[in-house]
Amino acid sequence: MANLYWLDQIQPANRNQVGDKAFYLGLLGQKGYSVMPGVVVADSVFREFLGTINWLEPLFADLPNSALHLDVDNPRQLQAIAQQIRQAIQSTPLAADWLAQLFVATSSWQSSAVILRPSFALESRLDSSITYRTTGLFASHVCWNQPEAIAQNLKRVWAELFRAKSLLYWQRLGIQLQQINLAVLVQPMESAIAAGDLHTHDGHLEIRATWGLGAALTRGEVTPDRYQIHRQTGAIQTQQTGSRTFAYHIAVPFASSQAELPPSQDCLRADSVEPSRAILTELELEQLAHLTRRLSADLGPSLRLEWAISKRYPQGVAPQPDTSPTLYLTQASPQPLPIPGIRFRPSTASSPLVLSPSVPTTWQISGLSPLVVRGVGAASGQIFGEAWIVPDSIQAAVRAPTGAVWIASQITPDWIFELQQAAGIVTEQGGMTSHGAIVARELGIPAVVGAADVTKLIQTGEMVFLDGDRGEIYRVEKEAIPPHAAPLPPSHLLAQTILQPSPQPPASPQPLAHTSSTSSKPDFYTASKSSDPPNGTQLMVNLSRVALLSQTHDLPVDGVGLLRSEQLILDVLDQQHPIMWAQERPRELVNRLAEQILQFAQAFLPRPVFYRSLDLRSHEFQSLMGHPTTPEPNPTLGLHGTFSYEVDPTLFDLELAALRQVQQSRFANVHLILPFVRTVEEFRFCYKRILDAELKQNPNFQVWIMAEVPSVLFLLPDYVQAGVQGISIGSNDLTQLLLGVDRDHPQMSPAFDQRHPAVMRAMQQLIQTARQVGIPCSICGQAPSQYPELVEALVRWGISSISVSPDAVEKTHEAIARAERSLLLEAARHRLA
Question: In sequence order, what are the residues at sequence separation of 6 or more whose Cβ sits closer than 8 angstroms to the Cβ of residue 761?
């Protein structure tokens, strides 16, 4: 078939049509390596398809051959153009006869699911290393092996080229769209025993492995097992067990035949696995070492591989006893060292060396020293920068240069002002749910936490490479950086200033009649998701700063499930502790805080905004002027939360006055969540002050509590009787208190498991008890973002809403939709039974 290439028939002359990924797999398959079969949808198909679209905008009429010059410094225009192109691609049907030919090819595999992998190549005169540095730009898609699903996901892969970040990336590199050849490799998707990747170094191989399919590793949902083995002998040098209690496999189709499978039905399922057993045996590690030695002879010494161990058999058929697992290559490519033309920002104290939006991974970069330290990858991204060791007292420190990589013993929320200048963050203490990690993710700054002794191993002024995905820090010689450097902003600044829409002007105050808490999604959601019914489970977003409002403008959310007051109030205090303001300038504090809250009320009107009042833990705000000097032996169990309101209600009363001022500005969509409530008596004390502040004069005003202290498991009906109108599960604190594990202790991170049976049963009990007593129950902790597989359990138990950080909204929306479809299907089957 013209425009379709079988992997085992690809020739060197076909490289531009099939892309580099398919080209190398085809080459290796023809040399006898174990490669899954596949068929490639050529770049010419993509270009012909673009020519069939009925473009409403004349600018796109000749898109296949157009340079499409864009003003990438106008973020709203860039996003609007990207959205318009992608919607046109996804709404235009493929030619039926051509799609039928493709389905004939995929049907020969007898697999119920397929994976569509983007495979592209650039014109030969361009820098070939760019193709090795674009992993983050294009996503693969898994779907059922049936025509409608394949067509839908093929267009999704094509549309990846026109995301705002992709358009920005190509234009900043001076590459025109007609110079990019985009093909799609379609392969059978089989359930795997294990999967992972491998990266070569001079004397050793680094291997990562997870149970089941590699999707869990790609999505960052598990901590993989890590192995370092000798390159020549295969001897194990180091071995580290990860944290992985589930694995993805291909689901059993709900329908009785392939033709009946709905395209949107998820074909991956998450199964529990034994967490302690090592994934790879010595024999399998030896096989990987032998495979790498063979590949080095064919492709070169520097390699990146992705692999899977699978029993190849038709889907739905049980493997025979004599079926032996086979090690398959799913991706292999040479990695040139050194990479010519890596584009960095010049090496100056005020400008970090920053990789482009999609950056080479550590094994692709020359000039790196051996690994300095490994921690926990807490915020995604990779960055070069000059190290700056943060003193224990940030007030006594000279201000760090803009764009430095901060290295500290710990990061606390009161450093929010300085953190905005950092290119990356490394801390000795903390875990995935520590406040430093949460702040880094919210600001989009690459971060590694739990890196032991890093403040002693790195010195100020050294050039380092930080890998926030892998949790690694390397030194890099400045001489290894090419002197010619095309400037690109740091990745987190890029995301905030280029790829995100501009802040909207404040809306005019609306009358109270228009401020119900009913969900109202933005126009973007209606336009781009019009074919999907809204989820029954509400999806909310966690926020803490006005500067992040622009990131949420187009998100399909039902409101703000958690507005953290601690970081919000720091934006108005000029490095002074709130207690000092409460004593010296109380009226000004009320006005400033009300102005901040009002901006969220305006942006989300009429959707609800749940403001969580201050939870000032003593160890987190020590750098602020006026901080109480008496240290606490155990700050987590110390004087904070609503108990601190009883000791001194001054600050709490000022917060209530600010909320009342927002109400009087004719915004009634802001509600209150009380933090770390230990007893019903604490709640009654607070509730009386809420009544005294006249907040309940608006009948729509709701008072919730955080469900994070285990006592709420036994007292929820009593809380409701006292006036509680809803609860929000704080899974971070709930986990550490139930399991007795310090969430900020890096060595205890394996024991801090929000999927532990005790935590799961506690959340289930809270959700079901809330339903029994007739109040809503939300969850705003890190668990749904970090472990999307928990979403199905939460929906099944009856959670009212799930609130996550902005970067996790899209995948959580999809997870909620999958869970609700599954429940609907089960209910329909039950009625038919």
Answer: none
